[in-house]
Please model this.
Amino acid sequence: MRRLALILALATPLAAIARPAAPVAAAIADPARPAEDKSRDDLRKPAELLAFAGVRPGMKIGELLPGGGYFTRILAKAVAPRGKVHAWLPAAIPDKYVARFEPVTRAYANVTLQRGPVFSAPEPLDLVWISQNYHDLYLNGGNATATNAAVFKALKPGGVYLIVDHRGNAGTGTSEAGTLHRIEESRVITDVKKAGFVLADESMALRRADDDHTAKVFDLHDRTDQLVLKFVKPR
Model:
């Protein structure tokens, strides 16, 4: 029987192995998602990232600096009906960013918007997610140290902190956060570990060899070389 199982496993098409879980696939195919968001899927690879983070129905998720809600919409659908997404925008952020996010909270009943100087959540979380905006925690009065500590506090033991951002060159640290909107991977790892996290894994899904890390991310849009780091709060 074990031999038969092995043969069947080897015979399974690679496409079937790579197929995203049904809730994630349904979330990406959600007709309520804006066409503009769907047009970015090939480059942002939401199926791969949600699978890497371990997203599943019923999870309680925090999302930092959600922008226009590209991932918020997908996460909200993927964890429904009992899961929730608590998105956080700092209290000092301009009103235009809050207004940009409001259509998401109107469209998805399981999404709430949290404000305040430091991230907090109304319940223990399974996952905290931030995509393409971690470097902003070092800008305009942001406090990456306080935010990472708050994330650690908000997560359940064994909870995941998933960070995606535009990669900077070695030795740049956070010096390009406000210019090229990039951050050095080793600086992210060092700072997050200081909060008590363990680096569990790294995904290569968004690696791009054609990005030499010298252009502003707004010139390349989603075609940047991006780090994808999964940290875990020890049990």
Q: What stands out?
A: The radius of gyration is 18 Å. The domain at 2-232 is CATH 3.40.50.150 (Rossmann fold). The longest helix spans residues 95-107.
